[in-house]
Structures are given as C-alpha cells and as structure tokens.
Amino acid sequence: MAELFLGKEDSGRPIVIKRILPHLSRQSTFVSMFIDEARIGSVAKHPNLVEVFELGQVGSDLFLVMEYLVGENLAGLVRRLVKRGERLQPALAAFLIAEVCDGLHAAHELSDERGERLELVHRDVSPQNIFITYGGDVKLLDFGVATAASRLTQTATGEVKGKYAYMSPEQCRGEALDRRSDIFSLGTVLYELTTLRRLFKRGNELKVMKAVCEEPIPRPTREVQDYPAVLEAICARALAHDREQRYASAAEMRADLLAAMTELAIDGDPHAALAATLARVFADRVVQKQQLVDRVNAGGPLDELLVAEVDEQVDVPVVSQHTATALSALRPKTPAERSATRKMRRLRALAVPIAVAAIAGAAVGGWLRMHRASAPALAADATPHVESVAPVTPVDPHVTLHVETVPSGATVLVDGRARGETPLDVPLDRGPTPVHVEVRATGFQSAAQDAAPDRDRGLDFTLTRAPIHAAPAKKPASKPGFHRFD
Questions:
Q1: DSSP string computed for 474-485
Q2: Which helix (H) or strand (E) element contains residue 438?
Q3: Which of 15, 119, 387, 428 allows an S-S link to 453, with CB 3.0 to 4.6 Å?
Q4: Is the dihedral of CA 248, 253, 254, 255 positive or negative?
C-alpha cells in the first residue's frame, strides 16, 4: 500500500519517507489504514520499535517520516546464514528474540492520548519486520496491518491480514485476536532462527494454513542435534495451538529467553556480539551502506540504492514433515497446571500411609471377627474402640510472590534485597510477617507495598514517570529531498 524513499532533513540526517501509493490515496479504506499506522507510530516510543517522526500531506499524497535504520532484516540474515552454512549462537538468538519481545510488549501495552489501552495486536510479526542494525540494535517494524480498539478501520469478521506462514491458528481462522496471537508468530520466528528451517512453508496458502492449524510441530532437536533443551521448551510454549497454553505476554516470554541466554552463556555484551556477527556476515553490505550514508551526508547524488532483501535466491530448507514426538508434547506446564501437579503429588504422598492404615485396619477387623468366633462369650463393652483420625494435608512451606510492572523490566527489591526484574516470581518462606516490596526503574518514580507471604499472591505496579525538564521542541523536517527505493 506504500512505497519507500530515502531522504534527508535540512541538518543532513538521513530519513525514510513512506508514501501511500497514488492510486490508493483516493480510497478511504487505505487512507484510514495509513493514518492508523501514523497514530500508532506517534505513541510507540521504545528503543526496540521503529520511530515515526511525523505524518504529512502534500496535495493528495500522504506520507510518514521515519528513522532510517542501517542494517538488515532478519529474513536476510537467515538466508545469508544458510548460504554460508553457519548458525547463530543459541544465546545470541535468545537475546535477539528477547529484544523483539521487549518492543512487542511495549506495543501491546500502548495507550492513546486519553490513557485508554489500545489493545494492539501487530498481526505481522515476521522475519521481514524484524530489523537488526549494524550497531547490534533490534527493531520491530511496520504496524500497517496492526489491529487496535480505536482504529479508524476495523477488520471484518473472517478477514485475514498478515503473512500466512507466520500467522497463529486463530488468525488463520479469522477469529478475534489478542496479544497471544503475536506470541505464536514470534515463536515461529524463534524456531526458524534457531533451526534455519522454515516451519510452515508449504506449496500453497491453503496448505500453509492447514499446517498452522492442524499439523504437529516437529521438535527442534529433530532438526538440530545439539539444540538446547531450554530453547525447545520456550518454543513449545510459544507455539501451543491453544492460546490459553501460550505465554500470556511478550514480557513473560522475554523473561524465559533472558534466563536461557544466561544458562547458555554468551561472552561480553550481546549488542556487540550481534554487531560483530553482522559485520562479518554482511561485510560487503556494511561498506556499501556506509558509502550511501556518506553520500547523503555530503549532499551528493543518489544514483542507485541497495535492494532491501538479500540472497532471495537462497532456498531455506523446510522442517521434517514426519516426526516421532511433536513439540506440543514438551510444552511446559502453566502455573495452574503446576499447582494441580503439586496437589496430585501431595495426594499421592498421602495415598501410601492411608493405604497402609487401610490394610492394617482390615487385618485388625479380620482378627476381631476370628476372635469373636472363637470366644462368643466376649462382652459387648469389651470390644476395642478405634477413633478415626482425618489425614492432615501437609502445608507447602514456600509461597510465590508474582510481581508485574507497567512498564516491565523494573528491579524488584524484597526487604531491600534485589531479586530480579519484572515480570518476576519471587519464592518466599511462608509466614504471617509482611515483607516490603519495592520496584525501581530508570526514569520512573519508585513504588512500594507490604505483603504477607501467607499464600501465593500477585502484586501489580503502574510506575509514574519521574518529573523532568521539558526538552526544546524538535524542528520538524521541512521539504526533504527523497529518492525512491527500487
């Protein structure tokens, strides 16, 4: 629905101009979609989201001014890795997708100017819309088909938007969507990035949707022999066909990815490691794009631009169609299921002593019957009296305190001791004495609350931004020159 141009501000800074196609600028549906994208971009301010500077109009032409990113999209990275016969370090792949999770969660949590939640769903989380800069930053792009509660355009029931091979089952069926649909899409991206295998690629769109909705997902360990179990568990939960069994939020998935990154170990700064990987894998493109930026900064002519997609002729292999064990069999249990499992274990633990007591009781009863038979003159008041005692269910000595913040990533301190970043499960000894829970985040005022660890409970904090001095208004881009991308 749009075309991209490279331009520059008066200061010389390169920018991207996204213009709605002329023949669509007269159709109200596409104009509304374009304005919706601009509205979302104007409030989506996050390091892992592409920045939209302004929405403009010249005559009948609508355009967006956006930041120019120097790097490659994830689709190109996967193809280049396949071409070179290389694989991304598992810890580095976990970091990359964790960065996407951070931006995606920020988008899911967006509110409008009135403070009302947008209930945004991206609907097009795919390798083409994940961008890695040569500096090692990760950005989620393109909210052109995102759905939100306050959009000017609403998707009709049964209408499908997005890339079929990265849709969730409910998205393929044209059902109402929530953020967990994006979780499934990101799980597909994680699977493909770490196995270098296309998960749902098939001969036609109908077969793709059938695979997404019905076919079992092969275990990554069937595709990659030394695939880490911790990443396989994350894939299993993100790719659950039943959305109730997936991660409830991108922040929750990010927490598991960061834990996996720590377990898998990565040397040094992951941003630097990612930048070094791109510098090596795309050495030719790094030089060419730097020369392009230099020409823009010098005001020189832009005779030819680089294509956005690289190595399109490279065919990424498809996953095994037949597998002994589907990935769904390895899905981690949800909190409710884990609670049910713990209760079942306690019941099993009680079953043994109860069974022993029952056997002993039966033996005593048998002995009494035999004794009465041999001694019928036994007086009634001489019959032994046994009181039944109800079994006592053991109490778990530990409880879990689940802490969440808006925004996520705040440091949690319990009685002054740092325990991790939100969203976070904090194990505590059960007891009546309240603990002091404080959350801190850079740029926000800290918040605190006392809670007694007498049961499993959750604490939610909405952090308020710390007061800052107003920055001078930014000068808008004026009449930028631009050159069309081929």
A1: PPPP-S-EEEE-
A2: strand 435-440
A3: 428
A4: positive
How many whole angstroms separate alpha carbon 161 and alpha carbon 159? 7
Dist. CA 102–CA 158, nearest whole Å: 30
User: What is the Cα–Cα distance from 466 to 449, expressed in whole angstroms?
Assistant: 19
What tokens does 74 get?
A: 């994830």
Amino acid occupying residue 109: E
What sections of 282-415 are H helices per DSSP?
A: 283-297, 335-374
Question: Packing angle between helix 74-84 and helix 270-281, nearest 10 degrees?
Answer: 60
Global confidence as pTM? 0.68
Amino acid identity of residue 482, one-letter, is F
Closest CA to 436 of 420, 452, 458: 452
Alpha-carbon span 349 to 365, nearest angstrom? 25
What is the spatial distance between Cα 155 and Cα 169, in angstroms, rounded to a whole number?
A: 17
Question: Do the beta carbons of residue 239 and residue 327 sit within 8 Å?
Answer: yes
Q: 32-36, 47-51, 153-157: which range is least confident on average? A: 153-157
Contact between residue 209 and residue 172 where contact means Cβ atoms under 8 Å apart:
yes
Report yes or no: 398 and 428 within 8 Å, Cβ to Cβ. yes
**Which residue is listed with tokens 């089952």?**
169
Give yes or no for a contact between 431 and 377, defined as CB atoms under 8 angstroms apart: no
Helix axes 270-281, 90-108, angle to 10 degrees: 110
Give the residue-averaged pLDDT of 396-421.
87
Tell me how far apart the alpha carbons of residues 147 and 37 are, in angstroms, rounded to a whole number. 10
pLDDT one-digit tens code per residue, 244-283: 999 999 999 999 999 999 999 887 899 999 999 999 999 9
Q: Is residue 101 packed enough to be buried (19+ CB in 10 Å), middle (13-18) or exposed (0-12)?
A: buried
Catalytic positions, written as ranges: 124
Give, in degrees to the nearest 5, the angle at Cα 269 between 264 and 270: 55
Find all residues with CB under 8 Å of 122, minimum gap 6, and list them. Answer: 104, 107, 129, 140, 143, 146, 182, 185
| Burial group, residue 386, by CB count within 10 angstroms (0-12, 13-18, 19+) | exposed
Among candidates 46, 37, 146, 152, which has minimal Cα distance to 103?
Answer: 46
